[in-house]
Amino acid sequence: MTKRDFIAMEEWSPDDVDALLALATRCKRGEIDGGLAKKVLAMVFMDPSLRTRASMETAMYLHGGHALCLEPGKGSWAMETDLDAVMDGATVEHIIEAARVLSRYADALAVRTFPKGDDWTVEREDRTIRNFARYSDKPVINLESSRRHPCQGLADALTIREHLGDTRGKRLVLMWAWHPKALPTAVPASAAIAAAHLGMQISIARPAGYDLDPDDYRAIRALAEQRGGSLDVTDDLDGAIDGAHALYPKAWGSLLHFGNPDAERLLRADQRDWRLTSDRMRRTAGGKGIALHCLPVRRNVEIDGDVLDGPQSVVVDQAENRLHVQRALLLELVGNYSHEP
Ligand code: CP
């Protein structure tokens, strides 16, 4: 049987994504017992995490399985990702052998690998997660790569549905936020794809120079239109926020200056007003729009503390839903459970 990876949400059919979300709701309601007994998940974290690691470990435990976690360079061998590398430097273990070996021990692999290089034309190919999938005999789950964070996207979709009900015709603003560092685009791209899956009217509000990859815009627009929604891109943040049902502030770096932090810092230097404030929350639909964020969030930088602590913030629900969507994903990929509701 061909193995099935979860690298990007849009690579699964909308029906399959909806089935995952439905299963996640059943997990959350406590309707699914077991299903992962004697199953092992091998996780490779090349970059730090709180939610992703804790929720994956908990998901495996709750359904009777086991998760092991490796942090290359911190207790496991420093890992090489370049397929053509002559490994006479600091790296000791190649991802080719790592993927092959771990897939002998485990039923599924899960990998976090942020962009490391300074050339977006290379990073945009998402080679590390794709190569793990290529060399693993078992399903590979993307725990955030250069291009996508699909588990976050699933949690975003579930949370938006829980809070907004029928999402068709409802507006979500993915709003760029200032941040002291140039962050990757995987989360904002995945959030917009999640909103597209829900058939929402999506506005991406960003200052000049902060466009997502053109392929991301194409993927978001195609899925949104297929699902009855739309995509527009604007630099009018407050105009986009007026009457919106959901605001998703997120920092990301300029792809125009990828790998050039000094130029990137200059570009964003005057943009600290791109921040979610309570004034902006009041401009949402009926003043009751929801505020989303993947976390971790820089308080009073990306989102003001009173918004995060206020009744319209759903960021902790989003984080909780990471657990439930991943329970569903693991059950779907490697589990044994009753499909009957
Ligand atoms: N949202 C998210 O992926 O959180 P962590 O980086 O803490 O895993």
Explain briefly what this protein structure is.
By secondary structure, the protein is of the alpha/beta class.
Summary keywords:
341 residues; five-stranded parallel beta sheet; alpha/beta; 39% helix; Rossmann fold
Q: Return the domain count.
A: 2
> What letter string, H or E per element, gives the SSE order?
HEHEEEHEHHEHEHEHEHEHHEHH
**Regarding CATH, which class of the largest domain?**
Alpha Beta
The fraction of residues assigned to DSSP E strands is 5-15%
Major β-sheet profile: 5 strands, parallel
Supply the helix-strand structural class. alpha/beta
The stretches of 5 or more residues where confidence is low (pLDDT under 50) are none
- Find the CATH superfamily of the largest domain: Aspartate/ornithine carbamoyltransferase
Calculate the terminal CA-CA distance, rounded to whole Å: 26 Å
Question: In oligomeric terms, what are we looking at?
Answer: single chain
CATH topology of the largest domain: Rossmann fold
The CATH architecture category of the largest domain equals 3-Layer(aba) Sandwich
Count of helix runs: 13
> What's the overall geometry?
globular
